[in-house]
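Following the same procedure, backbone shapes were mapped to integers, yielding the entry below.
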Amino acid sequence: MQRIFLGLSIPSAVKSQLISLQGGIPGANWVDPENYHITLKFIGEVDEITKEDIAESLDDLSFPTFQINLQGIDIFSRGNDPHHLWVKPNPEEPLLKLNSKIENHLQNHLNLKKDTHKFTPHLTIAKLKNSNLNKVGQFIQWHNLFKSITFDITEYTLFQSLLTPNGAVYKPLDIFSLDAPQ
């Protein structure tokens, strides 16, 4: 069984910009820049045959290329307990449409269940454990004007998520090209 998801890789120049944000929050576990990505769909544990069926099916998916940047910072939290610090893709609309197209495609072609959670496009930069909410709030205020360079989205990747004692490692398995704009 393999734990897999579909996501967008991040260009090196943008990774360099994101690295500059690391620091200033006690208890933050900063994501390794090699693991920076924007998840399009988490699929979960699948066998080799299902993984191959997913990859083969996605070869037929058509979606135009687009551009985004990363702009602003936010958190996911449970009440007053922040657990993920992330940057926002801008604009969100092409990511929402691509997610929806992938969800519908995989459900129609392979009968994979759609995700019941609301899709929130994001790039996690830190996982927070026992981090002070005030410190996190200060960090967001100091860095909320963050804006990356604009970059092209011309493909998305099928990743394997390998869980290790030092955290997850994401291994690219297959790459799917988007269509040139019409």
In short: The chain has four helices and nine strands. The first strand starts at residue 2 and ends at 9. The CA atoms of residues 40 and 76 lie 17 Å apart.
